[in-house]
Amino acid sequence: MSSTENAAPEIRNRLLAMLPADEVAHLRSRLQPVELEIRKILQVPEEPIKAIYFPEAGYCSRLAPMDDGDSAELGLIGNEGMVGMSSLLGADHDSFEIMVQVSGTALRMEMGAFHEELERLPAFRSVLLRFALAHFEQVARTGACNGRHNIDQRLGRWLLMAHDRVGEDSFPMTHEFLSMMLGVRRAGITVAAGALQKAGLIRYERGWIAILDRPGLEAATCECYGMVRRAEERLFGLPSGVTRPYWR
Description:
By secondary structure, the chain is α+β, with helices and mostly antiparallel strands. The chain is 46% helix and 22% strand.
């Protein structure tokens, strides 16, 4: 058997990939590869968090459920992050729902093992806390953006964030789901997506969105995307500049 066949699978979650090689090797036995199916609920509001997920492909939405049955999106989590952040901060549940928005894969860790490794590996805790800070900044900036900027800009920001995490230039997305994510009527999404498509920045058809002109989309979007991206660059040591998604 060749050395290539013996090699452990590459870690594609960027938080885990930041850890020293010996710590990654130690954690592998406690990480279970799982499929993330679209619309799968990974965290139920007000219920105990049973496991931590480290996405490697696809991404999830952090949602705030409302009494009328609707939800408002607060942030996205892809291979730059983790699902189950409240447990890192000492809570065993929170009031938000985490739902898979684009299917992919993740590494799952049982809650007991997670707490053991937080105590055993200081670098593990340090890296995860950096993500918590970056995610809180994303959530706060999303709230400010939704309150101050027009739908075209908000849609552009959201598409750039999704593009950063999905690993492809095109991904599934409907007007109905976008309207729920941005908290606006479907008619508003139709007009905004039409304007971006007419400008040659995206293509939208049959439930799919393709990013055609990434730099142009960034230029047409408000400052909120760039501010969140720069914060992530500082915390994670990403290459500077906001003219490409994470995966390039």
